[in-house]
Amino acid sequence: MTISYEVTPPVVAVKDVDLTLYRGEILGLAGESGCGKTTLAYGMNRLLKPPALLRSGEVTLHEKDGDIDVVALKGDELRRFRWDKVSMVFQGAMNALNPVISVKAQLFDVFSTHRPEMSRSEKRAVSEELLELVGVDKNRLTSYAHELSGGMRQRVMIAMALALRPQVMIMDEPTTALDVVVQREILREIMRLREQFNFAVIFITHDLPMLLEISDRIAIMKDGAIVEVNTAHNIYSAPQHEYTKQLLSSFPSLLGERGGFVRTGAGGGSDES
Ligand SMILES: Nc1ncnc2c1ncn2[C@@H]1O[C@H](COP(=O)(O)OP(=O)(O)OP(=O)(O)O)[C@@H](O)[C@H]1O
Q: In its keyword annotation, does this UniProt entry include Hydrolase (predicted)?
C-alpha cells in the first residue's frame, strides 16, 4: 500500500507497506512521530480524505464466508464494514465524544445505524453490559462526556468500538493523553477484552516499551516504510534493523533491569536476566 498527500510537493507518507494481521493477535505499530502510522491506519480502514490519496494497494479481510476487498467497498457496504468488522479508537478519542449528547444516545446511535432491528430495551441492556465490560458503572449511561474523567471517556470510546463485536480494533495512541496509572488499567482492560472476544488489535504508538509488553508482534515503521516485523520477543532481544536498535536504545528504561510486564508468558522476553 502506498499513500501520498497530494500537496506541493507531494508527501509520500506510506511507502509500499505490506502487513498481515492474524486473527486475534495484537500487532504493535511503532515509529517516531510523522513516520506515517496514522496514515497507514486510515488507509486500512478507508478513512483517508483528500489531499490523502491511496496511490496503490489492496486491503483484504479474510472471513469465514469469503474475502472482503476493502478498497472496493462503497457507500452502505463501507459503512457496515467500519465498526462492524473493523473499529477504530482514535488519537485523542476521549475528546471525540460529543459533549452535549449523553453516553446512552451515542451508544444507541451506533446500534440504530448498524442494528436497526434492535429494540430500545435491547439497546439499553447491551449498552449497560458494554459499559460494565470496560469498567464503567452502568449508571453512567445517562452522563454527558463533560461529566466523565478522561479515563472514563476513553473507556466509553472503547465500549463503542467494541459495540458490534468487530474482528479488528485499530487503536491509535488510545492512552497517550492519560496518566500512567489509568493508562495501565486501560491497557489491562484491552488485553482482557481481547482474550474474551478474540478480536485482533493494531496498536499504534511511539511508546515501544509499552508495545513490547502488550504485543504479539511488532512492526517498526520509519519514513513511511515498515523496516522490520517480528515477535515482540525478537524485536527486543534480537533486533535486526539498525533503526530498531536505535529506537530501543532511545528508551533508557529498556536498557536497565526489566520491570514487571503486564503481559505474562510469550512475548515478554525472558531469555536473559
Ligand atoms: N493533511 C496532510 N497534508 C500533508 N502532509 C500530511 C498531512 N497529514 C499528514 N501529513 C504528513 O504525512 C506524514 C505521516 O503523518 P502521520 O500523521 O501518518 O504520522 P504518524 O506516524 O501517525 O505521526 P504521529 O505519531 O505524530 O501521529 C508526515 O510527514 C506528515 O507531515
A: no
